[in-house]
Fold each of these.
Amino acid sequence: MNKFFPDRLSLWIGPLGTAVVAVAVVAVVVLVSGIINLAASIPHPEGWANILHYGMKRAVAFHAGDLKEPDDFDADWRVAQGAAHYGHVCVSCHGAPELGQNAVVLKMRPRPQYLVESVDQLSNKELAWIVLHGVKYTAMPAWTDADREDEAWSMAAFLRKLPEMDYATYRDLAYGQGRSITKKLDVEFGDHFPDTRSPAAKRAEYRSSTPASGFLEFAMQDTLLPMCGRCHGEDGTGRGIGAFPNLSMQNEQYLKKSLEAYASGERHSGFMRPVATQLSQPQIEALAKYYASQPDVRAPGADKLDPALVEKGRQIAQDGVPSRNVAACLSCHEQTQFTSRVFPNLSGQYATYTENQLKLFAKNDRGNVGDYNPMDELSHALTDEEMKAVSAYFQSVEPGELVQEKAQ
Ligand code: HEC
Ligand code: HEC
Ligand code: HEC
């Protein structure tokens, strides 16, 4: 009997194999010939764009389950932090309330969504996941510092509020007082922050900062202080919201090393890395000098701290936690005796910022500024409550107060 379909399984192998090889040959010919037109000038057919976007949303929904929403997701400081970064990086593709999107990105395929109108379709977790991981084949970038999930949550907190924001609210949140800063630093662009990586490492990945990664090439345009001031304020006090660290009370050496460490990637932050990688070495030095020379101001809000918490924190700062071998914070910080090492000042810093840094150290996610970092190990030994207490204590102290006590 002459059947078209063979009835024994083993007889299928030959014809199936031939079919697979034929398909592969056609695929290679199509690929090599270049016959498929990838022009972005031709929009995706309607149905195809929908299928792709549906697939992307299903993948995000599937993977986002692993993230854990922080308890303070709605906090104002998170929204302010997210807004400032959005205004620096994301706005160029996704547009802003009442402003719409840039004409250039409307020609991207796929087209970045106008998030003001589309974020309602995504859950908090899905937003944080997209921010953290980006989306392949779309130009939606992943977060520069993959271990800063906390920063992705701040972005999500802002995106959640975006649909209800009008232009003026968005502008004030994202640009702060940056718009009114006219002060300029007298500094030449000079040499770029030196790239110390091996030639092989340089070849493997283009250096993010040469040429400047500039979404807004502020470093080239002499708009340094308006840029930093958007988040940290012209005086370095961080706009009073706890979203941005107080730089006014920080020492010059630590400010300089922090900017270098963000630029080289040794200290991790998706907010500061895109900023720091655009700076040249003379600009880093001039900015460190500028903020260090501002009057040392304690972060506002110290009067609202819980006195019992502050007192508990004072004990940890002065005595450490002997039962768990945690050294007294003041044996290193606010000291002048270890001149060869760089210790950040903590007095007058926002409690939210200090607490967050301690949590990052405890997860080994913070990265280093100097070549000596005992903080990872030390923070592992602190409980969440102790981190909160000691952070509150340091916000309650006037900058320099403890250093003077020592000197007496
Ligand atoms: C270079 C352009 C570009 C930049 C910069 C960019 N995105 Fe995107 N983004 C895209 C594109 C393109 C998509 C579309 C993905 C798709 O349709 O599958 C996207 C998708 C998204 C989505 C999903 C929207 C939806 O409705 O499905 C979110 C949320 C998002 N981006 C947030 C951000 C945030 C926050 C930033 C800044 C940290 C940012 N993006 C920066 C290009 C960009
Ligand atoms: C979009 C907002 C934003 C902009 C713009 C910005 N910063 Fe920051 N900056 C932050 C945030 C958020 C942090 C905390 C990051 C972290 O968790 O490590 C920070 C941290 C820092 C630190 C470390 C402080 C410490 O106590 O360790 C320095 C120094 C700093 N910024 C300097 C600058 C300078 C100088 C500029 C301008 C060239 C600038 N920043 C622009 C948001 C910003
Ligand atoms: C043995 C010395 C030492 C002790 C003790 C110590 N620190 Fe530190 N701390 C450092 C050094 C060094 C750094 C800078 C690390 C780096 O970034 O590379 C630092 C950094 C920090 C930072 C980051 C500051 C910023 O602006 O980003 C915080 C917050 C901090 N310490 C809090 C504490 C607290 C709270 C205690 C007490 C529980 C403490 N430290 C005890 C040496 C110490």
Amino acid sequence: MNQELKNKTEKYIMNVYSRFPISFVKGEGVYLVDMDGKSYLDFFCGISITSLGHSHPRICSVIERQSKELLLTSNYFYNHLQVELAEYLIQKTFSGKCFFTNSGTESNETAFKLCRSYGQQKKNGASRFFSLKRSFHGRTTASVCLTGQEKIHKGFGNLLDGHTYLDPDETKVLEDELKKNGDQYCGFFIELIQGEGGLYPLDREYVQRVKELCEKHKILLVVDEVQTGIGRTGNLFCFEHYGITPDIMTLAKALGSGVPIGAMIAQENCCDFLATGQHGTSFGGNYLSCITALETFKVIEEENLLANVRSVSKYFFERLRITQEKFSFIKDLRGIGFHIGIELDRPARKLVEECLSRGLVLNVAGENTIRIMPPLILTKEQAEEGIKILEDSLSSF
Ligand SMILES: Cc1ncc(COP(=O)(O)O)c(C=O)c1O
């Protein structure tokens, strides 16, 4: 790793990340290459973003073509690519309307404002939110408040009025609170698989009960699919595994295969509660990001990638169960599709460093969990290649 790059990063870039001493200079398919020419298998996808792998020829080609045609004109003008993308998303989810953003946290901020505005207009000023302990919804102010982790709140004074954090998969406290104060709540945010918090899939019956209670109390259920969406779980969206339909769904990350784009999709019961001038964005829904998202969906369909995720995921779980038997310090193996967590009985960062030194990129979720999020194009052979590196790393851990 180049010392000058390290020094200049420390000098010029705000120090909010804990970086590994590696800088990648090229990516192709499921592999990355660092500045020393070393190759790595990528089981991380830049935190679940580059889901078609690196430099996918069709993504490169639409970016090149669109960059020569038109990048952005602002939202003061009509944009046919935005409409095409919104129509596609609505067809694949539920009837309603979309708002395009640039990131996951911005999608959640939009959902937050929509719920609040719905509460003001439709529920007598209701403004409180439920969200879950261990959740993660982003880094801007409303998303920080929705996130149920103290370490994310710390250091910013009191932001948290109006938020109730519930234990996941537990309904007693929720039911009691709803009996007393149900009329004060406008929204309930959940991740169906808690990603940053340690990769915990929520219980299906719990999620269905939450949906029922939200309907009964006229609370908007916001499903944050920023990390789970766009094929990661073997369905286009994770809510399909749970037999529910959200009132609002938020997306970002893999939607643009690396080009920043997010979206919020709201059902007909709530999509018209933000009036002209109450919300907006300069970059959101620009031509480049929309064409890349449209191409991402086409590639997923035409390369049959959802079926690939399901079949390679089955292999992953069978194979990782064998790994689990070999290493007593693996406590749990969980996840859906290509969103897989291996929980250790100790902090996992050292194992990640060991894997990196052997040419496998993955990361930690929570404290003790290794998170595996490979590109949707991964083959069984490549899965095996990664599992072998993981096992070698576990042996020397
Ligand atoms: C579930 C979830 N929501 C929201 C976010 C925030 O997304 P972004 O970093 O694009 O703002 C993340 C990021 O990791 C996430 O995992």
